[in-house]
Amino acid sequence: MSQNPKAIGLIATLHSGLTDLHRHGQAHRLLNYYFKSYLTQFDHIYYFSYFDEDIRSFTEDAELVSKVTICSKPRWIPDKLYALLLPIWYWSSFRKCRVFRVFQATGSLPLLLSNLFFKTPSLVTFGYDYFGLAQMRGKSFLHLKALLAVEQLAIKQATKVLVPNRLPVRRENEMAARKTIVIPNGTDTTLFVPHKGRTPGQSKTVLFVGRFEKEKNLPCLLRAVRSLASRHPIKLLLIGDGAERQWLRQTAKEWGIDLTMILRVAHEDLVTYYQNADVFVLPSFTEGHPKVLIEAMSCAAPCAVSRCRAHENIIEERVDGLLFDPHSDTDCATMIDQLLSDTVLANRLGEKAHAKVMDRYNLEKNLAYEAQVLSDLSKKITP
Fold first, then answer.
1. How many Å apart are CA 152 and CA 155, to the nearest integer?
2. Does the fold of domain 204-360 match that of domain 7-186+363-378?
3. Which fold has domain 7-186+363-378?
4. Domain 204-360 falls under CATH 3.40.50.2000
5. CA–CA dist 207, 179 (Å, integer)
6. How confident is the model at residue 4 (pLDDT cuts 50, 70, 90)?
7. For the chain, which residues make up each domain, given as ranges?
8. Tag placement on the chain: N or C end, fewer CB within 10 Å?
9. pLDDT of 272 over the 60 cut
10. What is the pLDDT of residue 383?
């Protein structure tokens, strides 16, 4: 191990940390896949969080406990000010890092002073269209201008920009093109596996996993399910949480929809829900490179997803999934109906989807490549 770079610094997305990820069932994925992969190339990890937290609160793994240092944020300091001052606040830790891995471009503010003082190489994720999502959520003009500035900052300050596909960088310029590397999101193909010998029940389970927010277009899904009530006994299962939670519950009750809502499921436990779904639906207006879709495909769940650029980058229509117009409740209902009515079609699409994930979206292989990229970058540090 002595040949490897000593330390890597992981900078959390603004406002995020293991506490936040654990709340949404995602800490396990970061710790047991990403951290473990990085430790094949580095001796130590410094994780710069926006929470006051300790690694022992999230894992008992001896390697992680001994080789991961969480650099916590004091509760009294505002997140954005802390982000700017982070390289000074943890000066000693920043000096030890041979490369920085920044999770999402919105977490790139610390690179301003880091590049000034340390000139340490960095790899920044540009995972989705931040500006477009903020517009959809009705953010203010000043917020949008600030977000544009942060996007440009990330591209300028990063040594390399990681994208899951070629789509997220909308305003891609010559600088971004030179810096961009593509590493798709992936899943654990030994965990997310098809269920053999599943016995179909009387009711049909339509599954959604994700945030209950405007961009996810869940009203379209509810209207589609309501329109199919006379054709199928549908149980709608929503896993996640968000601003639309109460509206979804109330509307489902008023419309007579059999709704089950689970606010949090640990990442490793999601597999059972994918395996038991008759249809997995993702009706979003916009996505980056959705991990939940890849997980559902890995479990051979028949998938009906909206026709947005990210989904079209993953799904080949009528080969490994169905696509529908996110602005058409009727189109959404038609695709769900096809998968519920035609088990031969549903099984064929599920099998093809599983095969595609095995070929393209193996998380272990993709993370091994990413860890090697980070190792190579660490060797370019300026003395």
1. 5
2. yes
3. Rossmann fold (3.40.50)
4. yes
5. 38
6. very low
7. 7-186+363-378, 204-360
8. C
9. yes
10. 44
Segment among 27-36, 156-165, 221-230, 370-379 with least mean pLDDT: 156-165
Does residue 360 contact residue 289 with C-beta atoms inside 8 Å?
no
Residue 200: pLDDT band (50, 70, 90) is low
3-state secondary structure the chain: CCCCCCEEEEECCCCCCHHHHHHCCCHHHHHHHHHHHHCCCCCEEEEECCCCCCHHHCCCCHHHHHHEEEECCCCCCCHHHHHHHHHHHCHHHHHHCCEEEECCHHHCCCHHHHHHHCCCCEEEECCCCHHHHHHHCCCCHHHHHHHHHHHHHHHHHCCEEEECCCCCCCCCCHHHHHHEEECCCCECCCCCCCCCCCCCCCCEEEEEECCCCHHHCHHHHHHHHHHCCCCCCEEEEEECCCCCHHHHHHHHHHHCCEEEEECCCCHHHHHHHHHCCCEEEECCCCCCCCHHHHHHHHCCCCEEEECCHHHHHHCCECCCEEEECCCCHHHHHHHHHHHHHCHHHHHHHHHHHHHHHHHHCEHHHHHHHHHHHHHHHHCCCCC
| Mean of pLDDT values over 160-186 | 74
pLDDT digits (tens, 9 = 90+) for 97-126: 999 999 988 889 999 999 999 999 999 988
Q: How many CB atoms lie within 10 A of CB 380?
A: 12
Contact 375, 4 (CB under 8 A): yes
Radius of gyration of the chain measured on its C-alpha atoms: 21
What's the pLDDT at 104?
A: 86
Q: Are 176 and 169 in contact (CB under 8 A)?
A: yes
Q: What's the mean per-residue pLDDT of the chain?
A: 90
CA dist., res. 95 & res. 117, Å (int): 9
Local confidence band at 174 (pLDDT 50, 70, 90 cut-offs): low
Is-contact 174 203, C-beta < 8 A?
no
Q: What is the model's pLDDT at position 9?
A: 98
Euclidean distance between CA atoms 233 and 262, whole angstroms: 20
Give the model confidence (pLDDT) of 220-229 as tens digits. Answer: 999 999 999 9
Selection from 86, 109, 145, 89 nearest residue 14 by Cα: 109
